[in-house]
């Protein structure tokens, strides 16, 4: 199979879909890999490293799109790339279609076979291609939140951990999944007061066993969220419905009750965000202030640490990519329920139920198309 990888064009996105080691693995399996020149530079991988691994370097992205059977990316294609879609080509990347009707329409119109990292789900309900970025985004959310608590950015002007004789910051984490747990780990490590909320009592028990007296666990309800937000200095939104739109747990009506200069980091913004007041921002212009609360809603947070993110992501995505390349997507789906769960669009049909619900589109069971 002909495998392609191009430079990401999203704002301040420096990750890359394939590392030189990944190229070696594809080539060793008998495939041909085509890389756009400079695609890996932002993550610290030179063109020479890709050539040494067996890749063919191509001068521009359009030629790579036109050459390959499967395009391996990191982020969703942007509008300028829609014209490069071809019927039957495999697109293997993050898609987040529930929050992006325009992209959904383009993939359906182009009859692309679109496999989304974020909806690949194993039998144990784990999301192996989403997990590494969730880990990074969770840890980064505290780092970024602590920065934007500084006065120069509109924050309260407090240090997350405080110092002897001063109060520590109150960190509230909405959602106890992978993002929330990793945010909790960093916040506790920095010495903040941490409250984490989730609807799953078993998950709260697990978190209580992990962190003990260092955290307060609460059942996620409107009343509990409203109560803890009044004293919150930093709020992390980390709620996820795989492939679907995120529930809006952080209500606009909470904002006037919060401290001036409190910070809200909406890690769920890729899926539409869990804040009613959220809107997508970029690394160039990451924050805005609404009713005194600083909102950080960057849609590609892990892109800020591309070397770590690229290696972590490709560690997870490579094995599924090799399976698809070996047998073709249809056969890979017949043998792997995880890969089948990742297929969001297939030759003009929408095959992810949560995306279909988000847009009010017809859902088609992938099994009926294979």
Overview of this structure, please?
The mean pLDDT is 95. The strands form two sheets. This protein has an eight-stranded mixed sheet, with helices on both faces. The protein contains twelve helices and 15 strands. Helix 1 packs parallel to helix 2 (47-53) and helix 5 (131-148) packs across helix 6 (178-189). The chain has two domains: 2-127 and 306-368, NAD(P)-binding Rossmann-like Domain (Rossmann fold, 3-Layer(aba) Sandwich), CATH 3.40.50.720; 131-304, NAD(P)-binding Rossmann-like Domain (Rossmann fold, 3-Layer(aba) Sandwich), CATH 3.40.50.720. Helix 2 (47-53) links the parallel strand 2 (32-36) and strand 3. The protein is of the alpha/beta class and 370 residues long.
Summarize the helices and strands and which ones pair or pack.
Layout: E1 2-5, H1 20-28, E2 32-36, H2 47-53, E3 56-58, H3 61-67, E4 70-72, E5 90-93, H4 101-109, E6 113-116, H5 131-148, E7 170-174, H6 178-189, E8 193-198, H7 201-211, E9 215-219, H8 222-229, E10 234-237, E11 263-266, E12 287-290, E13 293-296, H9 306-327, H10 329-335, H11 337-342, E14 343-346, E15 349-350, H12 353-359
Parallel strand pairs: 1-2, 1-4, 2-3, 4-5, 5-6, 7-8, 7-10, 8-9, 10-11, 11-13
Antiparallel strand pairs: 6-14, 12-13, 14-15
Helix pairs in contact: 1-2, 5-6, 9-10
What's the short version?
The protein is an alpha/beta fold. 33% of the residues lie in helices and 16% in strands. It has two domains: 2-127 and 306-368, NAD(P)-binding Rossmann-like Domain (Rossmann fold, 3-Layer(aba) Sandwich), CATH 3.40.50.720; 131-304, Rossmann fold, CATH 3.40.50.720.
